[in-house]
Amino acid sequence: MASQSSSLPEAAEEGFKDAASYDAHRPSYPVEAVDKFLTHLNVADQSDMKIVEIASGTGKFTELLARRPERFLVKAIEPHHGMREKLVQKDLPAVEVIDGKAEKMLIEDEWGDACIAAQAFHWFATEESLKEIQRVLRPEAVFGCIWNVDDYNKPQSWEATTKWEQKLKDFILSLDDGLPRFRHQKWKEVFDQQLPSNPIQVIKNTFTDRLPRFSLPLGEDSVKWTIWLSEEALLSRMTTLSQIAVLKGEKREAWLKIFKEAIQGEDVERNEKGEIAAHGLTYFCWTDRL
User: How many CA atoms within 13 Å lie on the side-chain side of 274?
Assistant: First the structure.
């Protein structure tokens, strides 16, 4: 694998440094959501399609691609050394793991039949990234993004299912460090910015290679889910969030106090094992390469 320096913000580098914990406690994706997502990308039930996956991490989504009956050929791009090495150790069939980033991928022009960013596009939603994604995709290929969104990590305007999850959500929102995350929804702006606001700018863009690279409006869909987790598993899952993972000392103690109070709430649903019903959804969107 060629070597490139990671472009992740320092807080993300620190928060994601425990790749083993991330891999163990971050959720996989529901079968229904994956099937719908790949159908919208026009690669479901299509043999030997070429997939570019950006910011593959430890391979939570890459594993699902490798298991599919379509026998996808996957180039998995990941800038974070620890996560990339965890993915390499999995030795997934037909998956080439590459050190790189969205703005600079070591992939030939028009190689991909589809490009996927799972749990990641908010980190690199820039014009430079869209230009590079367009370059590695064949004409009319589809770029898709997918996120698992726990209720406690939803956008502010999205209502949580329960009061206890809203309490945890309010705490996470209070930790805002200025870095882009899915819940801020700012990642959508890079697509909207493709369209100039006046006719004169349209003419200028025609002559300066600033024409839209992907179709609008974005296609959007989601699948709701409920998962049962022990208190320990829920805490470990939440600790994979970079803003939680970096908490130290008194700040971490304050977080643990709020967590313990929340899971004792009157609307916490538990099964016979004492596991807690945690809610969320898998959101995905897609757009055609122009």
Answer: 5
